[in-house]
Amino acid sequence: xxxxxxxxxxxxxxxxxxxxxxxxxxxxxxxxxxxxxxxxxxxxxxxxxxxxxxxxxxxxxxxxxxxxxxxxxxxxxxxxxxxxxxxxxxxxxxxxxxxxxxxxxxxxxxxxxxxxxxxxxxxxxxxxxxxxxxxxxxxxxxxxxxxxxxxxxxxxxxxxxxxxxxxxxxxxxxxxxxxxxxxxxxxxxxxxxxxxxxxxxxxxxxxxxxxxxxxxxxxxxxxxxxxxxxxxxxxxxxxxxxxxxxxxxxxxxxxxxxxxxxxxxxxxxxxxxxxxxxxxxxxxxxxxxxxxxxxxxxxxxxxxxxxxxxxxxxxxxxxxxxxxxxxxxxxxxxxxxxxxxxxxxxxxxxxxxxxxxxxxxxxxxxxxxxxxxxxxxxxxxxxxxxxxxxxxxxxxxxxxxxxxxxxxxxxxxxxxxxxxxxxxxxxxxxxxxxxxxxxxxxxxxxxxxxxxxxxxxxxxxxxxxxxxxxxxxxxxxxxxxxxxxxxxxxxxxxxxxxxxxxxxxxxxxxxxxxxxxxxxxxxxxxxxxxxxxxxxxxxxxxxxxxxxxxxxxxxxxxxxxxxxxxxxxxxxxxxxxxxxxxxxxxxxxxxxxxxxxxxxxxxxxxxxxxxxxxxxxxxxxxxxxxxxxxxxxxxxxxxxxxxxxxxxxxxxxxxxxxxxxxxxxxxxxxxxxxxxxxxxxxxxxxxxxxxxxxxx
Length: 696
What we know:
With 696 residues, the chain is mainly α. The chain is 47% helix and 6% strand. Strands 3-4-5 form a 3-stranded mixed beta sheet, with no helix packed on it. A 3-stranded antiparallel beta sheet has the order 9-8-10, with no helix packed on it. Strands 1-2 form a two-stranded antiparallel ribbon. β6 (326-329) and β7 form a beta hairpin. α19 packs across α29 (673-693) and α21 (561-579) packs across α23.
């Protein structure tokens, strides 16, 4: 077994004899020169040399020649030159494995190998002119994206082929648009009886179809196709003085704007949401900046100025190292200002990244199971906190929409497991999101604070407050979240009512709040002295509009905590009724079924305004007459008034609701007046002492 060698070749056998003390020469026993014999070109065995050396070659094979560029050929000498006119000395020679450096195919298949004026046989990699020629031929239209051959793959090569075909077909479509259509081709028209009609719709539909194909390609190829198409249709124009159809896509200017907006939105999403490298994104941005924009599109030239995720300023903001969004770089001020579309994309991505976990054993990413962290797995870095940091400092071109997204910061805090942080972020010192709460969003937070549950993270993606309110995702417990105490929830609700008129006026918001402090199981009625003093305490709490928080006196809340919260909310309801009509009111009053004493206390608080009390009574009567369940609710209210019979109520429809208003007054009047006077005197004596200890 051995490989035949050519005649004249020499095999040198070396020895690693360590005893040799002198230089080795060809006459020493350590070196043996063996003359090669003429044998067949096939593997053959070499007869061992019968010597006492430690190393003997018994097998030899000639090295195989692999495919190579012409300038690296081991058989034919190459002369480097930039001359393209004629082959340099011997450069036209080739072996079976020589490739053309320009065409990137076998030299024997190159049609320009020895062509006069452009001899590819002279090409080599150490020449800029030959490299430019090679890149232009192999990259084609992709050369404008400043891509290198090492970045090319099958997807990008296919994208380049699609672009070349698209340009040719679009050119024909636009030429047809410029020729226009005659009236006979388009139909008669009184507006333009002798002119031609120019309809851009066929061009628009063709470009839209191509963009649809680009959406199905690999990420890098899709971005190249979209921007390559934009380069072609941006210069399109509308023929002046022509009749234009009323279709929105018939006008070239309007249709071109719609197409460019679609391209920008798609590429922006790729830059933020996909795994495109920062280097590739930079090349896309450079290509877009070099495009020609007509005056009406100049404002869109900076649309792809999107910061990569490894941007120094962006990273420092996400990590909490920069809370101002401003960075000085070599004397220049760098501000974190991004387009609103980019802000929404980052908001969406940071939420999605919270839904994964990393398996430390397999280093794979899998969907995060609810309330479960298996052994060997760790939760992914929480991005909700980073999202809150980002939204607090970023500025945008659409301040109104940005404010809507910033109003979701409390929700993101809660999703991070910090319900207290979410509550605090609802009431910053300036521009509080609580002032812009809708009734539906208030009910959302009320449920979240009292149950420590939220819509399942795997199904919720929020880009606006309405998405939170109307989400149909199932609610599940939040990790490490603890429900707020009833007193804290009541303070939250009262603070929202102070600054948000929509929540203050909504009946459903009152019903939900009353159900928290007014449970179905009856709360024991506190002593009369406590009820009497509660009017002053509740009034002082509700009338304090200057404090940033709602302060409940400790002595008032500690003795009868449940009763104190119920009376506080009931007192706020009384102020709501005195201020304006409450509709519907019967369902609100129905929450007092288990605690009639609180309903009587509400009646007493309303007695300060007899006129409003009378009008409220009439409102209840009208509402009961229009409601299918009105009689049942009124029957409950009438149960507070034993002195009024059902016959009297039916005979006097205008006073059907008056009975509950006078119920406690009738009951208390049946007692001795002297007892009430004594209680009043004792109360007056103690009032000053109690108020001194109340901590407002």
